[in-house]
Recover the amino acids of this structure.
């Protein structure tokens, strides 16, 4: 199933948020929980790295859907003064990692990241969201709520799973069920398209929106270990229309299909497609894009300009003089 910007307006309840809370609560209490956190750790680091690119200081930051804290450990006092972590799961947010930099204060709030009802409008200088927004039911409304939480001239940086995530697992299960049952059930949650994320950000009021798409591939010894890791990550399916059972013979057939179609060197790859974004709430100091047609030079003339001897002469005049004693 594909979710796009149009269907999101009409479909208000896709995911069972109470089930998602219970999945996260269960996952974080398992002894081997941290062994399945590599993906969220990687994306959390990437989000923090984008914070370092900001030239503005961020007095108060909100980490939406923090999990056990995958962004905060990488932040420093030169960028952030106070970070508020919130998550649907009380078990996760109470166990969340703080910031090793003593100059950064960390506040933990148990709050559903879909409603964000615990926070006041225009109360944050920066919003962060890492790997939780793909479980939001009302994405258009959610982006609007995030917009309202920001002060003017402040950004929203985030990342979420997008379409074609876990396509190897999806195809293997569908082919196995077609073979054994003559039909397919819903075992993998729906994901949005990258372009729809940009559209929703723009509709919410964000400007200067930038999108990036990437993929992370993780190898597993077999399909069953992948399914268990998804449970430990709190990423199991929680749609209302999910299949209630998965027969043993279907699992065995799906494992065989997975191995035959995708396995390499006895490793079962699982692909996670990620869309990341940054969007700014406009204000008096916001950068503005140049007006269309305001450029002085056309790109189609670039080759001619580069080959022009007069251009090279003018360029040479702008270069600093060559140090004496140095060969050309």
């Amino acid at each position: 199933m594909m979710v796009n910007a149009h269907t999101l307006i009409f479909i208000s309840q896709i995911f069972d948020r109470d089930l998602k809370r219970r999945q996260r609560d269960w996952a974080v209490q398992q002894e081997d929980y941290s062994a399945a956190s590599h993906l969220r750790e990687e994306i959390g680091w990437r989000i923090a790295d984008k914070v370092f690119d900001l030239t503005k200081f961020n007095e108060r930051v909100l980490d939406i859907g923090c999990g056990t804290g995958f962004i905060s450990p990488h932040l420093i006092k030169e960028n952030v003064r106070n970070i508020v972590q919130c998550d649907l799961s009380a078990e996760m947010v109470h166990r969340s990692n703080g910031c090793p930099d003593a100059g950064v204060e960390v506040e933990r709030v148990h709050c559903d990241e879909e409603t964000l009802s615990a926070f006041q409008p225009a109360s944050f200088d920066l919003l962060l969201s890492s790997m939780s927004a793909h479980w939001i039911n009302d994405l258009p409304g959610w982006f609007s709520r995030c917009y309202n939480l920001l002060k003017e001239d402040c950004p929203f940086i985030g990342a979420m799973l997008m379409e074609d995530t876990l396509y190897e697992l999806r195809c293997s299960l569908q082919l196995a069920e077609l073979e054994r049952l003559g039909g397919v059930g819903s075992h993998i949650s729906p994901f949005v398209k990258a372009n729809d994320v940009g559209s929703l950000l723009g509709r919410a009021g964000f400007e200067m929106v930038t999108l990036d798409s990437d993929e992370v591939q993780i190898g597993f010894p077999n399909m069953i270990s992948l399914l268990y890791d998804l449970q430990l990550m709190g990423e199991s399916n929680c749609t209302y229309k999910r299949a209630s059972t998965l027969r043993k013979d279907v699992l065995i057939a799906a494992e065989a299909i997975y191995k035959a179609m995708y396995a390499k060197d006895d490793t079962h790859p699982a692909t996670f497609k990620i869309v990341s974004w940054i969007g700014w709430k406009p204000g008096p100091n916001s950068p503005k894009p140049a007006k269309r047609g305001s450029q002085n030079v056309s790109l189609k003339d670039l080759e001619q300009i580069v080959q022009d001897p007069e251009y090279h002469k003018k360029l040479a005049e702008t270069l600093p003089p060559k140090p004496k004693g140095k060969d050309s």
Summary: The CA atoms of residues 172 and 260 lie 10 Å apart. The first strand starts at residue 2 and ends at 3. The mean pLDDT is 88.
